[in-house]
Amino acid sequence: MAVTPRKRSNKRNVQPHLGQGRFYFALFVVFVVFGSLVARAAYIQVIEPEQLIFEGDRRSLRVDPTEVQRGTIVDRHGRELAVSVPVQTVWADPKRIHENGGLANKERWLALAEVFRTDVDTLLGRVEDPNRRFVYLERKVTPAVAEYVRQLGIPGIYLKTESRRFYPTGEIAAHLVGFTDIDGTGIEGLEAAYNEVLTGKPGERLYRKDAQGRVVEEVRVTAAEQPQQLTLSIDQRLQSLAYAELKKAVRYHQATSGSAVIVDVKTGEVLAMVNSPSFNPNNRSDLQAHRMRNRAITDAYEPGSTMKPLVVLAGLEAGVIEKDDVIDTSPGWMRLGGRRVSDPINRGELTITEILQNSSNMGSSKIALRTGVEQLLATYAAVGFGNDTGIAMIGESYGVLQHRTRWSDFEVATLSFGYGLTATTLQLAQAYSVVANGGIYRPLTIQRRAEGELLPGTQVVKRENAEAVLHMLEQVVADGSARNARVPGYRVAGKTGTARKAVAGGYGDEYVTLFAGIAPVSDPRIAVVVTVNEPSGDDYYGSTVSAPIFAEIVGDALRAMNIAPDHIEDTQLRVAGFGGAQ
């Protein structure tokens, strides 16, 4: 009987608790992973969703800006004084340059450096970082340079359109208009003072693109806010002719500087404001700081004898003199507190008009002492000294008009002939406009007033007193020390001034020459002041330096403004004959 061997069992004994442990561990892992995903989703969706939104928007949102040009500055007749023109700017994407082998051709970079007038190594240094995506190579180049860059065809170098400020009148209105920086922000003159008015707000179109570059959503369109146009009271014709005459005189007399201002006495509008030396705002590569100062409003000088008409005005207002009074100036000098006040010669008895015609220090001092310092200073302040003129320009000086409790007689006397106080060229023009306007003070403005708009003025002195001083000043030009200020065909009133410049410890050997005047006397329209600082040589008097400049400016200005002559008998008229008759 055969014996069948017993088969060995292949089954292993599995412990029940070990299988359950694996199951629970796997279940735990599943729950941990699921919990982590839920927690991460909750964190992203609830606690910090902005990051993913930002990343998504960065990949799909695009913005197209709507550029706006800076506002134009024009004169009272609409002639452009500052305008923005489109230009090209050269920029580079260093990453694209490195990716596309833009650095391989060294000759093109040498050509680019030459046209930019820079070193090629400096130029290459700007694009050496492959991680950068934007860098300027040259801002606001000429059309010819832009076309040359385009033809070079260097990979990764592009052109973008910007705007550049251009000043058509150049140096003629440079101090007044000012200029902008390379980004179009005003930094000098009216460009800086009215920067917010001249600067618009760019618009933009925000939209979303898909992966294929198709526009799928227009998110937002913001309209651009256009800048305003700044219309000045300046007449570009008067500005040009005044600058030409001033520049010629400053060069002829080898003076340090000069300023001239023309003011419309009826409206308070500044029609011209010029300085020499000047600068070209379109090319500031070699600009010198001293040329940038608008000296007509920043530089204050002791105004010298141009103050004597205001002393007469103060005396008339105080009632201590009458316009026909006679004052004895003998013996031509006097001592006040140990100090000497004198005239060049003993002029004896002088009428008030003759005091101004001869520019008598003795006569003006005696009027000032009669008037008293309080009334004198009050009159000076009433016509605008020691205060701003109202034009609201950056850097305007108020000058110096002291108000003290104690004044010596000598100090009062010096106030009468223009020492002991300072004023700018524009302040002096404002004071004379009060005389021309029948005693009405009106703040000055650099913006054109609308047709028919006339701000109410303040009657600061009596009309009859202002008119009396005006006619006295006419005699100063007709028969007095200001004969060089005559303008053929027109009645002109004015006063010369010559003042020594103060230095540490006293007065030096340099002079400021001035002339302040009004025209035409029959119906005053303009007040003009000319200041020449530190003329060289022996000719440093207001009557021979500033008065002739005044005459040229006023003659040209009255003709340009089409103001009819009011002194025909002063001119020789030539009538055209017929058939050759003379």
Keywords:
Penicillin-binding protein 2a (Domain 2); 19 helices; alpha+beta; 582 residues; 3 domains; disordered C terminus
Find the CATH topology of the largest domain: Beta-lactamase
The CATH superfamily of the largest domain bears the name DD-peptidase/beta-lactamase superfamily
The parts where pLDDT drops under 50 for at least 5 residues are 573-582
Strand residue content: 15-25%
Number of domains: 3
The assigned CATH architecture of the largest domain is 3-Layer(aba) Sandwich
- Summarize model confidence as the mean pLDDT: 87
* Largest sheet geometry: 5 strands, mixed
Q: What top-tier CATH class of the largest domain fits best?
A: Alpha Beta
Tertiary shape:
elongated
Question: Structural class, from secondary structure content?
Answer: alpha+beta
Radius of gyration: 39 Å
Roughly what percent helix? 25-40%
Describe this structure in words.
This protein is α+β, with helices and mostly antiparallel strands and 582 residues long. It has three domains: 85 residues, Penicillin-binding protein 2a (Domain 2) (Alpha-Beta Complex); 79 residues, Penicillin-binding protein 2a (Domain 2), CATH 3.90.1310; 315 residues, DD-peptidase/beta-lactamase superfamily (Beta-lactamase). Helices cover 35% and strands 22% of the residues. The protein is built from 19 helices and 21 strands. The strands form seven sheets. Strands 2, 3, 4, 5 and 10 form a five-stranded mixed beta sheet that branches. A five-stranded antiparallel beta sheet has the order 12-11-21-20-19, with helices on both faces. A hairpin with a 2-residue loop joins strand 19 and strand 20. Helix 12 packs parallel to helix 14. The longest helix has 32 residues. It is elongated.
